[in-house]
Amino acid sequence: MSNFTILLSLQKIAGLLSLAGALIVVAVVVFLLISATKEEDKTTAKEKVYKLRGRYLWGIIVMAIVLLFISFKSLPYSHSKEKAAEEVTVVGYQWLWKMDKGVYNAKLEDFGGKNEIELPVNKSIKFIVTSTDVNHNFAIYNSAGVLVTQTQAMPQHKNILQYTFKEKGEYQILCLEYCGTAHDFMVGIIHIN
Amino acid sequence: MIQIDSTDIKKQKKLALTWAITFLILFPVLITLGLLMRLRQGEVTEAAPSEFFSYMTLHGLGMAGVLFSFAFAALWYLNSTRYVKLNVKFGWFLYIIIAIGVVGLLIGTLIGKFGPGWYMLYPLPFKGTFWPLWATKLSVISLIILGVGWLVGILHILYALAKEYGGITNLLGWQYLKKDNSNIREIPSMVLITTISLIPGVFALIIGAAMLIMYLLQSFEPSLAFDPLMMKNMVMFFGHTLVNITMYCAVGWVYALLPEFTHREWKVNKAVVYSWNATFFFILFAYLHHLYMDFVQPTSLQYLGQIISYSSAIPATGITMFGVIAQVYHAKMKWSIIPLMFLFGMAGWAIGGFAAVVDSTIALNSSLHNTLWVPAHFHTYMLMGVVLFILGFLYYLFSGNNKEEKDSFGNAGFWIFVLGSYGFLLMFYLGGLNSVPRRYSNYSGIEIDHVRETGVHLAQCAALFVGVLLIGLILMYLSLICRLVQQKATNKKND
C-alpha cells in the first residue's frame, strides 16, 4: 500500500474507490428501472437473483478479508513504527497549539512551547499530543494542502503519533475537532529542513 | 393473526398524520439552518461564530432527533395497524413528551446559543463556552426528556410485540433456525426488523441517559470531572447507534410496503434471520470507528471497529439490497413515486454506505477523519436514504387508492430533489478529497490557499444545490397536500 500511495494520495484512493462503488449502484438502479417493467415468473426471477447473490456473497467476503489484511499493514499507531529520531510534545489549548522538543511531564499550564517548530526531513518524529482543556485534533497539512496525518488531542490522555516528513518545506497544523468559538483559527507551523 | 379494529386504525392514523405534519414542518426549517451554514462558509453572508455553531448544533441534533422520531412513529403506525395493538393514548403522550424536549432544545440553541455540536464532546459544554450555563442545563435536560420518551415508547412496542408473538426469541426469528421449523410461529419481516432495530436503541438510550446525567451533574457541580475517553465512547455509542437504527427502522417499512407494488411476498426465512441477527451485533459495535484517531483507545478495539464496519456491509447488501433486486427484477410493476423512492433510498444507502466503509478503513481515516468527507457520507445515507424512505412512507400514508397513480407533479419534484441533493453531496465529497475541514464557521483562518479557496467555492456551489433540492421538496409538498385533500374527500364520501 505504501508504494501505491506514492503514486496516489490516500484521498485519491478513497475518491476512486467511492466513485467506482457509486457507479456500480447507478448501473444496478438503471438496470432495475428498465427490467422491472418486464414480466417473468416470480420463482424463476428469484432463482436468478439468488444465484447471483450466492456469488456476490462469496466475492464480498473474500474481498473484505483481503482488504482487511492489506489495510492493517498501514496503521498509524506508534507501536508499529521504528524508533523515533526526535520527540516533540504538542499541547492543544482553546485556541492555540504549543509545541516543543522533548518529553514534557510537568504541569501543562507551565508548558512553554510555541506554535512553530523546526524538524528534520526523513527522520521519524514522535509527537506526544495532549490537551489542557477540551478535545482538539492535531492535523498536519503539507505545502500542497493535503492532509497527511492526524491524531486527537484529548485532555488527561497522551496520543502518540509517529511520522516521517519526506519533503522539506512548511507544513501547516489545523485543528480538526470542533473545540469552541475560534476552532477554525487554531493553527501552527512545522518547518521541515 | 391479530385483528385490528377499524376505529383503532383511524385513531392510529390520526396520530401518524400529526407526526407526519410535524416532520414536514421541521424538516425544511432544519435544512434552512444547513443552508445558512453553507452560505456563511461560502462568504455569501456574515454570521458570528456563536450563531454558526448554535445553528450547527440545532441542525445536527434536530435532524438526528426528527428523523429518528419520525422513523419510530412510522414503525409505530405500521405495527399498530397490522401486527399488534398499541395504546394510542400512550402514543399521544409520547408525542407531547417529545414535543416538550424539542421546545427545550429550540430555546437552548436559538435563545441560549448552546453550541457544542450535536455530539457535544466532553468536556466542551463546560469549557470556554460562548453560551450561558443555563443553556447547557436546559439543553441537556431536554435531551434527557427526549431520550426517556423514546425509551418508554420503544419498550412499549417491544413488550406488545413479544406478548403477541410469543416472546423475544420469536421476535428475533430464532424459531426459523430450528431443525424442524414446519410448525413455528411465523413473524412478518417488519416485526423482525423492528425488534432488531429497537433493542440496540434501548442500550443506546440507557447509555445516552447515563452520559447526559453525568453532564447534568457537572453543570451543577463544576468540580466534577469524568474521563474524556470514556465519555467519547459513550457519546459515540449513543449517537452512532441512534442514527444507525434510524436507517434500519426505515428499511423495516420498505420490507413491508414494497411487496404491495411488486406483488411478490418478502417473507422471513433463515437467511433473513441470520442476516438481521448479525446486523444486531454489528449495530452495537460499529461505533468504534469514530475513535480511530484516539490512539490511546486499545488497538484491539480499533481492529474490531474496522472488522465490524466491513462486516456490516455484508448483510445490508447481500440480503436486504439483493432482496430489493429480487422484489423488483422482472416484476412487471409500475414505477409510481412510492417504489421509486424506496429504490432510490436503497441506492442512497448503498452509495453513502460504501463511502462510509471507505472511511472506516483506519489507513484511509487518517486522511479523511473530520474533513468534509464525514458529512458527505452520512448526509448521503440520511438525505438520499432515510429521507427518501420517509417521503415514500408519507406518500403511502397520504394516498388512498391512488398509490400507483401517475403523479407528474410529485415525480418532477422527486427528480429535482434527487438532482439537487446529489449536487449538494458532491460538494461535500470534493471538499473531503481536498482535505477541507468540517465544522469550520468560515475558512478565512486557514493559511493554505488551496484548502481555503476550495472550501469557499464548494460551499457556494453547495448552497445553490440546496436551493434546487428545496424547489423539488416544495413540489413534492404540493403533491402530498393534493393527495391528502383527495383522501379526506374520499373518506368523507364513504362515511
Q: Care to give the gist of this entry?
A:
The complex is a heterodimer of chains A (193) and B (495). Chain A is of the alpha+beta class and 193 residues long.
Task: Tell me what you see in this structure.
The complex is a heterodimer of chains A (193) and B (495). Chain A is α+β, with helices and mostly antiparallel strands. Chain A has 2 domains: 2-74, no CATH class; 79-192, Sandwich (Immunoglobulin-like), CATH 2.60.40. Helices cover 32% and strands 30% of the residues of chain A. Chain A has 3 helices and 9 strands. Chain A has helices at residues 2-7, 10-35, 42-71, and strands spanning 86-93, 96-101, 116-119, 124-131, 136-141, 147-153, 159-164, 169-175, 188-192. In chain A, the strands form 2 sheets. In chain A, strands 3-9-8-5-6 form a 5-stranded mixed beta sheet, with no helix packed on it. Chain A has a 4-stranded mixed beta sheet with strand order 2-1-4-7, with no helix packed on it. In chain A, a hairpin with a 5-residue loop joins strand 5 and strand 6 (147-153). Chain B has a domain at 1-252. Chain B has helices at residues 6-41, 49-82, 88-111, 133-165, 168-171, 189-220, 228-257, 259-262, 270-285, 299-328, 337-359, 362-368, 373-398, 408-433, 449-494. Chain B contains 15 helices and no strands. By secondary structure, chain B is mostly helical. Chain B is 75% helix and 0% strand. In chain B, helix 6 (189-220) packs antiparallel against helix 7, helix 9 (270-285) runs antiparallel to helix 10 (299-328) and helix 11 (337-359) packs antiparallel against helix 13.
